[in-house]
Amino acid sequence: MLNLKYHYLLISLLPFIAIHVSLFLSFQNDLLIACNPYIEGCYSISKVARQPSSIYFFKVLLLISSFLLYFIWEKIFISNLYQTHIFFGKLGSISLIIYILALGNDGILYEFMRRFGVFIFYMTTLYLQSIYTFTQTKLLVLSAHRMIFLKLLAFLQIMLFVFSLPFFLIIKNDRYIENIIEWWISLTITIWFFINFIYYKKNDR
């Protein structure tokens, strides 16, 4: 079984590499005009990933990461206390897998998963990261630095998520704002796992 420390590492690095290498390849091959999506919201992650130069690279790395994500929740949560939470984590992973498989295709399934499947993934993953940060960690002995960074990141994630709700669910013609939020939320999710990798100690969850 994969050691939890390296489980954290892979889940943080694989999506980060998939997204940013895909962005670089799209610019390098003149498929997209160069810009900073974190500030300008010029492209969604899906648009970057759908380019001919990057779609297969993106799909392979994200599928591996999604499968790893599916199995990590039962390793970091105390199973008998958090069965429902583990279920929601796996549901989010499955939603992400379906979205990745549908990526690059036209039709109702892709449009639905792009809009709602990704939202389910974000919602469940951010929720579980917050639950771990504010409740599960009370049962563990973690370093002060790890706790500080996780809590600061969790507060940032909560603010981003709350701010994003009207743009994803209600307000129209706001695509660039949705894109900016999407890039930052995705980044914070990967950073959360990377923090846990950096400060991991033997016998940690």
Key attributes of the depicted protein:
mainly alpha, 0% strand, globular
Describe this structure in a few short sentences.
With 205 residues, the protein is mostly helical.
Describe the protein in words.
The protein has 205 residues and is mainly alpha-helical. 75% of the residues lie in helices and 0% in strands. The chain is built from eight helices and no strands. The protein has helices spanning 4-28, 37-40, 45-49, 55-76, 83-102, 108-134, 144-169, 175-198. The longest helix has 27 residues, at 108-134. It is globular. The two termini are 14 Å apart. The model has no long low-confidence stretch (mean pLDDT 85).
Q: Kindly state the mean pLDDT as a whole number?
A: 85
Q: Main β-sheet: number of strands, strand sense, barrel status? A: none
> What is the N-to-C order of secondary-structure elements (H for helix, E for strand)?
HHHHHHHH
Number of helices: 8
Instruction: Specify the structural class.
Output: mainly alpha
